[in-house]
Structures are given as structure tokens and as C-alpha cells.
Amino acid sequence: MRKLLDIFLPTAPLHHAYILVGDPRKVLTELNDFLEKRFGVGFTSVSNPDYSLRELSTWGMEESRELKAFNSHRPVSWPVKIMAIMPDIISFQAQNSLLKTLEEPTVGTHFFIITRRLEEYLPTVVSRCQVIKLETGIFVPELIESVEKWLSADIVRRFEINKDILKQQENKQTYVLDWLNCLLDIYWGKISGSPERNISSPAESIFDAISYVSQRGSSPRIILEHLSGIVPTV
Predict the structure, then answer these.
(1) Is there a single domain that holds both residue 150 and residue 129?
(2) d(C-alpha 214, C-alpha 79), whole Å
């Protein structure tokens, strides 16, 4: 696992929002270690009004309202205020309600969202955060290779690759879903830092495709063909 101390310069200011990707328990341990070394041994989640740690099975609208309330006041005892959120599931509605908070954070407030899978988050949320992958190897090499070939191909070649994807789906029911999740992850990695403002539109389409393919009666072939025409070659 990568170390946050190796990523952040000691005196560099923190961004207002991060998404930390990796095994949640390991990432939380790494985050706490980093915060104590950055701000002092006393900066822990125990009896600290400036550090809120939320471990949630489901993050809904109520939790988003609590985050907004935490964001609204200034630090009490420390120069910064930290909220670490580690949900198993987060609803689309809760994510949408976070956007304004992530756009207009209170000075000195920093959010750390800990997740195993970046693709569970709306592109509009991801675009407002700095993403740090502390662990790699979430997707198998064969899946990554297929996605890389698809992303670099023209539409004719993509349709050929789609046939292979659908063939794999016959052997593994979740293959297309896994493939789309990998596509979103790699696409975000390739366009990260791009100055273009329209880059999130294809990512939103991939995110929607992940939702559609999970629904009963959906057509993976039509979904893949649609993405083949709208996701730019990278």
C-alpha cells in the first residue's frame, strides 16, 4: 500500500476533499497515521471535536445533512477540521446533495471519503475531489487489457471487442458489470487533470451504463454499442 506521507509534501496545503481508494480498514489506518504525523499525536478521532469519523453501512440523505452541518462551523481546537467517511453503500441522492458542500467548503475543513471502488461514485462527485489510489490490483490483468484495447480503438474495432465481452458474459454473469466498472476506473485515470470541462459527460454515461446493466431485462449489447459511439478514444 502507498503511504500518504510519501504522497503529500510536509508543508503543502491539503485539498478540501479526497477520495482514498483501497481496502477500507487499511486505508483508515493509513489516514489516521498520516493525520497524527501531520497535526500531532493528539489528533485522533477519540474525543476530538475537529475530527469526525463515520463508518456507515449505508450513507443516505441524513448523513449528507450531518456532513453539511460539520462543514458549517470552524475548527475548535486545531488549525483544521477533518471528516473521514467510510460507507459500504452511498445513494445517488446522497451524493448529489454533497455537491454544493464539496464546491464551497469552510476554510480549514477537509473531507476524506474512503472506498474500495471509485466507480461507485458519481462523476460529478469525483470531479470535485482529488483521487488517491493507495492500493492497486483491484481488477484482474485480463480485464484491464480488454478495457485498454477498447479505449484506444476506433468504433469498428470496439464493436469487435464488444463481441468478445459478451462471449465472456456467457461464462460469468457479472463480467459485463465488472468490465464497465474497470472501464470507468481506467477512463477517469486517463483523463484526470484534463482542463476540458466536458470530460465528465462520457464518464457519466459509463456510470449510467453500470446502473442499467444491473437491472433485469437490460441489454448489455445495446449498452456497449452506445458507449462505443460516445466515449472518446484515449
Answers:
(1) no
(2) 44
- Does residue 85 sit in the same domain as residue 166? no
Asked if residue 76 lies in contact with residue 105, where contact means CB atoms within 8 angstroms, the answer is: no
Final residue of a structural domain among 80, 115, 133? 133
Output the tens digit of pLDDT for each of the chain's 234 residues: 778 888 777 777 888 899 998 888 899 999 999 999 888 888 877 788 899 998 888 888 888 888 888 888 888 888 899 999 998 888 888 888 888 888 888 888 999 999 888 878 888 888 888 888 887 666 788 999 999 999 999 999 999 999 999 999 988 887 998 899 889 888 877 876 554 545 567 888 887 888 788 677 889 999 999 999 999 998
DSSP 77: S
Supply 2's cell numbers: 502507498
Of 130, 210, 214, the closest CA to residue 173 belongs to 214
User: Which of 115, 133, 151 is where one domain is finished?
Assistant: 133
Q: How wide is the angle at C-alpha 206 spanned by C-alphas 157 and 189, nearest 5°?
A: 85
Taking the complete model, does pTM exceed 0.90, yes or no?
no
Q: Which domain holds residue 197?
A: 141-230
Shared domain check, 129 and 17: yes
Q: Count of domains in the chain?
A: 2
